[in-house]
């Protein structure tokens, strides 16, 4: 095929994709055809000339990756995959229907989507994770492409990703910004100031190329230049027009997120003439050329050696986590550690020191860190364990939310939870982490209370087929369990019991140890209590708790180093909501905490042994 | 005083501040003296030469503002305020003690702190809000200074703020980056590459000045240049050394967050010689010169006109919110609106169109938007209403968390909550918003279910002395209340009742209307139910609900368009936890939703009228 034929073919394909974008959004009577139109040439060139992939095997590990960061342009992405042969073109009319996987924004329910997008500014970080894995773990030649909108470059997460990609010299990554000038409700702040975009991208260490994004020739040249650029990622800054090719709509405000309505027929007629379907021979898709080695994981990943504590020394669960992660790393070469410059506090440093090539220092940029973790975990090759203070994981709350829509299997590890961290004060204390993480569908939330259970939580996390949150603690705790104790997801442990128990206490972490102290005090007063270590806050072990409460006169006290809302307390209450005859008391932090010694803070906020003992007496 | 004397005085002050930083962290046996040391000259010059303020009246509205974004350097900030005369220097030894407001990281419990810091990358955004208010609302000459660490420039939120400040030409804003090279666990990614910092800051539209941050002369010149720079903000890039002036520690890794221990005496002796306390005359603090007009708010802010609906047309609560905000704007000139390029969806556009000068378009940068809103709301002058889709407010979850520690009064408005938004799909649906917002201490969470109550929620929000979250909905709802209905925080409304009711249903938003439909169906079957509109999810109206449940045979059904965890359901369960004899059922979304028509989604996820009716029958 001559180069003229190539260009003409890609131009016709671009217009065909425009047609599909209009028709599918007309059918669904919602969607973003004008945002699709500006990027039609970009998608045409990428999917029908640049990218190496197999539409019949979209998750082939050696294929180039594509991430549509501007997820609202799903219609043109679906159109490209349909035209490529991934599914029948006729299915495009099912856009946004409840029984179709062609959702309003892309999700991995579709086998050609790796990550859900639609919350802006996240795609580039996912792409960084894929590119990092490609270059440093897979050591393969596949490339990663990510199309962003101009509006979403206002998101700071995008600049975290720009900084990350250049720092790690991800020359297998190519971002394309579709600078179509117009946002949802106003022009984007930089409008068509391409030189400002170029300066910013260049300053962040990328190779920047400005092109006319509606010109196939310029795009082809830019992608070639990108593939030849070494040691830095490339960003193609494509000057485009929203609604490009749509007469009367192109470059006009107030056409965001609207089907073309009665303007559609005339525009479609024009576009169809340009495509001339009868004579149109689709361009060939480049075949996969990269090689990727097969992943050979054991069916079950086991700690390389069991917990080994003599029970005399107190150990922090954050330290036990680090120990366990190092053991996991020995057992499985696909375990990856990430941290945001807190590795000497979260103890992910133990993993880093043992396996420096499988550790990614993400610096103080939690949003990008979580995005990278999600990107690394795509196509089920690697298992990402991502670390920072639990409070700062919240910085990536929206990324974790979107991770759920991606059905990611990332393991989130948050340290320094609760007022028990002490003097650093409230800004460093996670007191809402469970409230947030519990909302993630199908997640497992671990709250280990000693070193043995912490190690087993890490092992269970690695094997769980979904997202996991592990809350670790700063203070040292006594060892509660034997080294060979067996733990299961959703199975609590009764750690104190007798036949005379008058009340059940459910607790976790520091409050579990306070409960034990309280039980000793109460025992002296002739009042025996049963104490349950929840172990997992989600799922919560309803059976064990209910049985115990029924055996202790329907009395239940829940104590937690967390705000009153959404944590262990409400998890237990919800599990028992259908029960009558249970009286529940709940101790938790109820106000903004202060700096102080851990014991002082536990007392001040009413969750220490003394308050527990008093609460039990009140329940009796 | 000669300029030599000035410089010497400031150098001596810098070392005196180093001494205080060492001594106070020795006393608390925790803290970050080395991170204080690198910025000692910056703080000395700012507090004793550059800034105009009154240490005896730290919240004087005409004073220059100072924000310590690197909040872990609280010890040197406290030292500066003490030396300035805000409180006795002897109190510095109470650092991090539980009965002292000199917490590990600064909070507004101290009258010289406007905003809590300690979660990195947030201070510049708060400062942007203060500078925006100074330039555009107060129209005053006070200036805003913000010191950042180099490590935190990895946070994307910082770049959102850089972009915002230049876009709005905040030439009254001066940022200083303390480039001390070393992070917590490793060198910061850019180390001492000052030219890279300069390129980035310049590309983001700021005037960048590189200085030796340990050189008082260079700092003085840079601050002068900053004050003379028009139409753009200035960023002073100060090359410094962590632990500067601490022999054997300066520029060494592994000294983050550690008191100097047994190295302190020798270092203190050296510094004390440099200060020579006996001969040291403290530099004079520049007096306040700016003028600011007094704020004259009515004791109670009322909607300029009451709700005015004929009850025939269905209205979305997001639209009613926009209507009410416009009315509030008429009633009170201190009401400010902010949005992140969603104003035509959240309907904050109604306020923007009426009061363009009191509206801040923040573009797609929710973290900075929330920070700006918090900054604008400091010193109790303006009332910020900040808008975006509820799902995207989560992007600023950590900012909202820190806002709570700042005791901010910001009003957060999240639209497009729940699966009822329909075809756009799960990325746009907030299903965890209440779980997160409920954790904010003392917040009020409104969930209006019709236009009348939505308008009153906005009015109540404006008058509430604390943070507020209002969840608005996308679909149109029937009008439930008369235009003169009176609403109160923490007071639910019974909207359907009879003496024969066999079950209570608590709901909000779309599910309240589904409950009404279900009640009609059940009525046909001879089963009357009582229906409660919660109105506020926090505080929840325990009394009304309990009374109602007791009157309906202890049967309670809660239905919500939210995930199962942490929302209305668990709020009600927690309120009734101490009760026995109540049987609770709960309908909520339990998995990642799909795209589809709202009615289809409500059915698929089990929260429509049919599922409600079935759940009631099951409870009977």
UniProtKB/TrEMBL annotation, chains A, B:
EC number: 2.2.1.1
Cofactor(s) needed: Mg(2+); Mn(2+); Co(2+); thiamine diphosphate
Domain of life: Eukaryota
Keywords of the record: Calcium, Magnesium, Metal-binding, Thiamine pyrophosphate, Transferase
SUPFAM superfamilies reported in the protein's UniProt record: Thiamin diphosphate-binding fold (THDP-binding), TK C-terminal domain-like
Record carries keyword tRNA-binding: no
Domain Transketolase-like pyrimidine-binding residue range list: 315-479
GO molecular function terms attached to this record: metal ion binding; thiamine pyrophosphate binding; transketolase activity
Gene3D superfamilies found in the cross-reference section: 3.40.50.920, 3.40.50.970
Record-linked InterPro entries: THDP-binding, Transketo_C/PFOR_II, Transketolase-like, Transketolase-like_Pyr-bd, Transketolase_BS, Transketolase_C, Transketolase_N
UniProt family annotation: Belongs to the transketolase family.
PANTHER family named in the record: FI06132P-RELATED (PTHR43195:SF1), TRANSKETOLASE (PTHR43195)
Protein name per its UniProtKB record: transketolase
Organism: Adineta steineri
């Amino acid at each position: 095929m001559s180069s003229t034929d190539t260009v003409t073919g890609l131009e016709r394909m671009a217009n065909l994709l425009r047609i599909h974008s209009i028709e599918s959004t007309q059918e669904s009577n919602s969607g973003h055809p004008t945002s699709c139109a500006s990027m039609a040439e970009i998608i045409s060139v990428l999917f029908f000339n640049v990218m190496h992939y197999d539409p019949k095997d979209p998750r082939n590990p050696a294929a180039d990756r594509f991430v549509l960061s501007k997820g609202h342009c799903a219609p043109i992405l679906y159109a490209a995959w349909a035209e490529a042969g991934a599914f029948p073109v006729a299915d495009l009319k099912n856009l946004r229907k409840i029984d179709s996987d062609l959702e309003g924004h892309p999700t991995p329910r579709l086998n050609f989507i790796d990550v859900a997008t639609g919350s802006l500014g996240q795609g580039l970080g996912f792409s960084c994770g894929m590119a990092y894995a490609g270059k440093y773990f897979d050591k393969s030649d596949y490339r990663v492409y990510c199309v962003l909108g101009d509006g979403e470059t206002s998101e700071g997460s995008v600049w975290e990703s720009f900084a990350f990609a250049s720092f790690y010299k991800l020359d297998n990554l190519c971002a394309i910004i579709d600078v179509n000038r117009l946002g949802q409700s106003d022009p984007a702040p930089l409008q068509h100031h391409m030189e400002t975009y170029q300066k910013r991208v260049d300053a962040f260490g990328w190779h920047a190329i400005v092109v006319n994004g509606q010109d196939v020739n310029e795009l082809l040249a830019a992608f070639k230049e990108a593939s030849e650029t070494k040691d830095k990622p490339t960003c193609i800054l494509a000057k485009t027009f929203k609604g490009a090719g749509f007469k009367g709509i192109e470059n006009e405000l107030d056409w965001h997120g609207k089907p073309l309505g009665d303007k559609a027929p005339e525009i479609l007629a024009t576009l169809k003439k340009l495509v001339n379907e009868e004579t149109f021979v689709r361009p060939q898709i480049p075949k996969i050329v990269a090689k990727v080695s097969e992943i050979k994981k054991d069916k079950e990943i086991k700690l390389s050696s069991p917990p080994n504590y003599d029970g005399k020394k107190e150990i922090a669960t954050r330290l036990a986590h680090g120990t366990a992660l190092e053991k996991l790393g020995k057992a499985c070469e696909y375990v990856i550690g990430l941290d945001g410059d807190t590795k000497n506090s979260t103890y992910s440093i133990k993993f880093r020191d043992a396996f420096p090539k499988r550790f990614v220092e993400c610096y103080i940029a939690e949003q990008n860190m979580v995005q990278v973790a999600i990107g690394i975990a795509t196509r089920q090759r690697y298992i990402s364990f991502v670390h920072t203070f639990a409070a700062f994981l919240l910085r990536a709350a929206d990324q974790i939310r979107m991770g759920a829509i991606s059905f990611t299997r990332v393991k989130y590890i948050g340290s320094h939870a609760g007022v028990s961290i002490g003097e650093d004060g409230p800004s460093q204390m996670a007191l809402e982490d469970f409230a947030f993480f519990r909302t993630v569908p199908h997640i497992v939330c671990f709250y280990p209370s000693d070193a043995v259970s912490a190690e087993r939580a890490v092992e269970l996390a690695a094997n769980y087929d979904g997202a996991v949150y592990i809350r670790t603690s700063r203070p040292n705790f006594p060892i509660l369990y034997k080294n060979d104790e067996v733990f299961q997801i959703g199975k609590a442990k009764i750690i104190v019991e007798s036949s005379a128990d008058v009340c059940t206490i459910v607790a976790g972490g520091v409050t579990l140890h306070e409960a034990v102290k309280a039980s000793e005090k109460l025992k002296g007063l002739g009042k025996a209590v049963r104490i349950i270590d929840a172990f997992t806050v989600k799922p919560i072990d309803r059976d064990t708790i209910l049985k115990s409460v029924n055996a202790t006169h329907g009395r239940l006290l829940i104590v937690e180093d967390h705000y009153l809302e959404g944590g262990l307390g409400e998890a237990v209450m919800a599990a028992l909501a259908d029960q009558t005859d249970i009286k529940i008391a709940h101790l938790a932090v109820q106000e903004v905490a202060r700096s102080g010694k851990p014991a002082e803070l536990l007392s001040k906020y009413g969750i220490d042994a003394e308050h527990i003992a008093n609460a039990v007496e009140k329940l009796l």
